Amino acid sequence: MPQQTLQDDRVHKKTRIAGEGRRLDGYRRLFALPGTRAFTVGNLLARLPIGMFGVSAVVMIAGSRGSYALAGAVTATGLAATALAGPFVARLVDRHGQARVAVPATVVSVLGSLALLLCVRFDAPDWTLFAAYAGTAATPNIGGLSRARWAHLLRDDPDALHTANSFEQAADELCFMLGPVLASFLTGSFFPEAGTLVGAVLLLAGMLLFTARRATEPPTRSRSRGPSPLRSPGILPLLACFTATGAVFGAMEVATIAHADAQGHRAAAGAVLALQAAGSCAAGLAYGALKPARPRLTRCLAAMAALMVLPWAAAAVGSLVVLAGALLVAGMATAPTMVTAMTVVQRRTPADRLNEGMSLVVTGLLTGIACGSAAGGWAAEHLSPVTAYAVPAAAAALALVISAADAAQGMTADTAQA
């Protein structure tokens, strides 16, 4: 019997190792495709500054003008401008191609960042800061450009596309986790404008490297054969879900900063929030490797709604360590939800307007983040930092209700083959 048990253990170990190897093979196969490694490196370089610019602008403006209110207003203006300009830039990309549109749009964005830097440096009037930062709205939806390439390359392989979408979501989380840390280091270690300057260089260099891989670029059509993504069946409920999900992110960030400040550890807020992104990043990679059978958006949203209660409960305990653990676990629901939702967007959007469809999603997210930040800030100031955590929990529940209502009306396209 002991010998038989030993043999069974060996068989089990070999089976487990083989299963892990198969899961890793999914990512190996992605980057075995010609050109995918180069465009991924370029995309990551260009995407990292997206997490840097906001923090860099706030530090740069507040340090020069002595007003966080002005810094917040300038960055909010840039956020609103990006939400409005994003779908227009994406429509041009779909019509004329990524390289022909993304590169000049990126140049405009970089010039906007440099103009902001110069306006701050030479003490230009306040209105010039708003005008300069609005120029950064020309930044293309970099993650969307990459997802569009994967959708084109893997159009006949839904399993591989699921893995690619999971990787892209993990990359998003990684960049939003590392970007603010890098910006804080640069602005604190060198000079206030260093974060903006380095971010502009990385954005332009990464975009040039990304667009240089023309062989992987999706084809274009002079005129779209499909309807506007807004008219595609099921898109509007999805955008509403994304807006509610964005509110989760915006409210959670403000609530965490307020709670850490109330505990006398405001400097630790960034590290605590980074754990939420780390949890999402790890979950995204695992979700892409495991390929769960027939995941549904409603189920993912239900998991997110349940887990978003954890930070609220942890905040009531009063320990920042407990809150950090809760955010790490809660973040694990984010990536699977976003991956499944992005897959649904790709299925419901006409192929020749895919960039526009995904840009509309970003607009929904940005709108939700702005609304969630405002609601979370109001709750933290007028109620309490602990009560502010009810806002992201409520937003997650709202996203679940919207998705469930959509499914009840027969929109069963929210199943994403993994």
Automatic annotation (TrEMBL):
GO terms for molecular function: transmembrane transporter activity. The chain crosses the membrane at residues 44-62, 68-89, 101-124, 194-212, 233-255, 267-290, 297-314, 320-345, 357-380, 386-405. It comes from the Bacteria. Keywords: Membrane, Transmembrane, Transmembrane helix. Pfam families: MFS_1. This is MFS transporter. It comes from Streptomyces actinomycinicus. The lineage of its organism: Bacteria, Bacillati, Actinomycetota, Actinomycetes, Kitasatosporales.
